Amino acid sequence: MAEFDLPLEQLRAYRPDVVEPEDFDASWAATLSAARAHHPLRSVEPVENGLETIRTLDVELAGYAGQPVRAWFSRPAPIPGEAPRAAVVEFLGYGRGRGLPHERITWAAAGYAHLVVDTRGQGGQHGNGGDTPDPSGAGPSAPGFLTRGVLDPEEHYYRRLVTDAARAVDAVRQLPGVDPDRVAVVGNSQGGALALAAAALRPEVSAVLAGVPFLCHPRRALALTDADPWAEVVRYLAVHRDAEEAVLRTLSYVDGVNFARRVRSPAHLSVGLRDTVCPPSTVFAAFNHLGTLAPSPAERTIEVYRYNGHEGGDAVHVRRQLDWLRDRVPPR
Question: At the top level of its lineage, which domain of life is listed (predicted)?
């Protein structure tokens, strides 16, 4: 795929007006208030991970409406008397589940306490599966997750998923050996969208790393790409021809641009200029709006991968994330 979006010089200045519901803050405050009526941790159990230097706990946290969400919590084997460590909460890409305990250990190997959060109802498309069902559901939808309950913001699948992400921040702050004042959130694609949302909704977050974030500027994405998951919306609207405004209104409640405006912490994003899943202008829309509604602007950085698509910088970018976060939120 050749570069298909705006030239990079225009992307760096691209800050479009994006529809934001008048009750955006009130709606999310009510949803999180209801979720926080439940203790964030439902259970914590040790698990054998086959590793010598990293210890893992099987965590069940209370997500949307107190519903169970599974997660792996890994950290370097504790040394008696050591100080609490900074934590990294990781959210996963579309179709992935938390997999196996030894699958995602980069952040723990770097010295952080690491919570990798399962994705409700997903885990059947990539990796080694997930363990969290989605007990809610409403209305007809196209195959996939993006259009589940999409006619009503209160019933939308991503309302539940974003709430799970915010509650994961609450949960990690209560896990053993974690410094609750030093929590970063990280994710790529869908996980990047959830990282932006968690950072916006939980001001305790110290830093956000969102690689090629999904769910930004839906109206623009739908006009530019026919790649999944956006194509799910196209297929849905091809059948439900009069539903466009209702669908776009629902998506505005989970638009990464609207969350980005509220992010207070330092932020590190990435973009691939040949990415048809998360078109570059949608990512820059979020990046250029970062912190515009926060009390004071925070540092923001974006890594641009001119010759890459949705894979972005891949392992090269992970190393850049490690270096960036270590300078701002060291593990110890």
Answer: Bacteria
- From the list 72, 78, 251, the residue with the least C-alpha distance to 159 is 251
Is there a domain that residue 294 lies in?
A: yes
Report the DSSP beta bridge partners of residue 91: 187
Count of domains observed in the chain: 1
Task: Calculate the alpha carbon distances from 246 to 11, 43, 105 in Å.
Answer: 29, 38, 41
Give percent helix, percent strand, percent coil of the chain, each to the nearest 5.
30, 20, 50
The annotation status of 94 as a binding-site residue, yes or no, is: yes
Amino acid at 242: D
List of residues 6+ apart from 116 with CB closer than 8 A: 71, 72, 74, 90, 92, 98, 104
Query: 295: which 2 tokens?
Result: 């009390």
Give tens-digit pLDDT for 136-157: 876 888 889 999 999 999 999 9
The residues annotated as belonging to the active site are: 189, 275, 310
134: left (phi over 0), alpha (psi -120 to 50) or beta: beta
What does the pLDDT look like over 200-255, one tens digit per residue? 999 999 999 999 999 999 999 999 999 999 999 999 999 999 999 999 999 999 99
Pick the closest to residue 251 from 10, 19, 63, 14 (CA basis). Answer: 19
